[in-house]
């Protein structure tokens, strides 16, 4: 039997955070306070819109009554709350899920640190004030492994020897390092979850947070016309051949995260878990999904793009950073944590071309562009 808790959740209006909120409220039956920007009424409006989309209709009153929204700011002292409100929040919080993050792959490190590092520090300060009974779960990323291209990344590993592909990775690395120091200093348990690229074959409504593949599909559309519309023949892309990307279905990731957070040991220290797919997705398969929509198109991976044509320059500009930067990776991720703590959770199926096409939104796009 699940014991109902009073949970503070950050990042509830994001693609992953909204799904975590739905699961905590609807599937687990917890009481959840969402912290976010804007007035409490504005925040609740955004959150309810996300939840309604996920539920396919209005939330039952019994569920909605367990949802509370609190205006605050991770970057400010006491989360931007008046002292009395901060004290009340700490007093009623039995667990914290910290999912909020600036996930931009192009923002400067100084900006990312404000949310991803300083924001994590503010959350830990609240956990300290709430007392030892308050459990902390922090969502990080598998890409704290940085530029390391090969080998198996251990769940205990936190190493900056190889450097980072993006400032985002570095900011999350620094946040994890901060969490480890805090847990050791205060002799407290913390669960750190490291998802890879999250994907879904279903798409949120217009205006709601999308997953990276949906954004990729949208960015390849210009004024309603597909980027490669009418293009035939070879188009070179600046990415090393033979690379693979760890992409995992968000539905599986949420189920895994809930199990890991609930079953992680109570003893002090940080337990880190990779929430990743057991099978990497070849970048070639992703490119084939794009090619399938444009007969005659051949996307070719080249280590270096020299003397690009106009369409090659345009394609490189529109392809998302995560595909260009991570497409050369051949590394894997240890999964012993999820296998040990959640043997009842079946592995997600490997991604195939049809699934990637749906994730890119090409089914709907094709119906729109070719009535």
UniProtKB/TrEMBL annotation:
Organism superkingdom: Bacteria
Chain ranges of the Thioester reductase (TE) domain: 9-257
InterPro entries tied to this protein: FAR_NAD-bd, Lipid_A_modif_metabolic_enz, NAD(P)-bd_dom_sf
Official protein name in the record: Thioester reductase (TE) domain-containing protein
């Amino acid at each position: 039997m699940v014991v109902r808790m009073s949970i503070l959740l950050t990042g509830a209006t994001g693609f992953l955070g909204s799904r975590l909120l739905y699961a905590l409220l609807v599937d687990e039956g917890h009481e959840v306070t969402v912290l976010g920007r804007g007035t409490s009424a504005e925040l609740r409006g955004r959150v309810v819109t996300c939840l309604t989309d996920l539920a396919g209709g209005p939330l039952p009153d019994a569920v909605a009554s367990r949802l509370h929204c609190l205006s605050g700011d991770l970057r400010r002292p006491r989360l931007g709350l008046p002292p009395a409100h901060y004290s009340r929040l700490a007093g009623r919080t039995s667990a914290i899920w910290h999912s909020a993050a600036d996930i931009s792959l192009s923002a400067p490190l100084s900006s990312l640190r404000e949310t991803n590092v300083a924001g994590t520090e503010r959350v830990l300060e609240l956990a300290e004030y709430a007392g030892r009974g308050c459990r902390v779960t922090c969502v990080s990323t598998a890409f704290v492994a940085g530029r390391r291209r090969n080998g198996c990344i251990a769940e205990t590993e936190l190493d900056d020897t190889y450097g980072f592909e993006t400032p985002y990775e570095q900011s999350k690395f620094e946040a994890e390092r901060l969490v480890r120091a805090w847990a050791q200093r205060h002799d407290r348990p913390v669960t750190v979850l490291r998802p890879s690229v999250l994907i879904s074959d279903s798409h949120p409504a217009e205006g709601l947070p999308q997953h990276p593949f949906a954004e990729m599909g949208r960015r390849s559309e210009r004024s309603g016309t597909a980027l490669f519309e009418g293009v035939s023949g070879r188009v070179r892309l600046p990415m090393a051949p033979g690379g693979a990307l760890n992409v995992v279905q968000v539905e599986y990731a949420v189920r895994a995260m809930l199990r890991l957070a609930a079953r992680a040991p109570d003893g002090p220290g940080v337990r880190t878990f990779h929430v990743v797919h057991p099978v990497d997705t070849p970048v070639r398969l992703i490119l084939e999904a794009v090619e399938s929509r444009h007969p005659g198109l051949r996307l070719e991976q080249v280590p270096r793009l020299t003397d690009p044509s106009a369409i090659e320059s345009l394609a490189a500009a529109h392809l998302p950073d995560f595909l260009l930067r991570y497409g050369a990776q051949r590394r894997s991720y240890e999964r012993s944590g999820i296998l040990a703590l959640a043997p009842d959770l079946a592995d997600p199926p490997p991604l195939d071309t049809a699934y990637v096409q749906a994730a890119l939104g090409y089914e709907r796009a094709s119906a729109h562009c070719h009535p």
